[in-house]
């Protein structure tokens, strides 16, 4: 799932900071958090994945929107599962 332990630790920190939202290690959702340490991605990298920048934060953190139909389908399926959960 992750290349090394530091990437896993960063993912856990992002999950913790965004509670109560669910965070998935995938860019195939309507909203995506990008954490780019060294260089921000170029437009071709983002476009290939259907991503556009919504907001830039400090230290290489980006809020991205995935405009592909697949992302919207995943969102609807996830929302339906959450709506049907019994707590």
Description:
The protein has a domain at 25-83. 39% of the residues lie in helices and 20% in strands. It is built from three helices and three strands, in the order αβαββα. A three-stranded antiparallel sheet has the order 1-3-2. The termini are far apart. The model has no long low-confidence stretch (mean pLDDT 80).
In brief:
Helix content is 39%, strand content 20%. With 87 residues, it is an alpha+beta fold.
**Rg:** 14 Å
Helix content: 25-40%
Question: What do the pLDDT scores average to?
Answer: 80
Low-confidence stretches: none
Largest sheet: 3 strands, antiparallel
Secondary-structure element string: HEHEEH
Beta percentage is 15-25%
Output the strand order for the largest sheet.
1-3-2
Key attributes of the depicted protein:
87 residues, alpha+beta, globular
Summarize the topology.
Blueprint: H1 5-17, E1 31-35, H2 43-48, E2 51-56, E3 61-66, H3 69-83
């Amino acid at each position: 799932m992750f290349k090394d332990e530091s990437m896993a630790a960063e993912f856990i920190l992002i999950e913790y900071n965004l509670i109560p939202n669910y965070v998935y290690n995938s860019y195939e959702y309507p909203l995506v958090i990008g954490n780019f340490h060294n260089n921000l991605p170029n437009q071709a990298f983002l476009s290939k994945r259907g991503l556009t920048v919504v907001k830039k934060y400090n230290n290489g953190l980006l809020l991205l929107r995935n405009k592909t139909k697949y992302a919207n389908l995943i969102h609807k399926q996830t929302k339906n599962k959450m709506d049907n959960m019994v707590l």
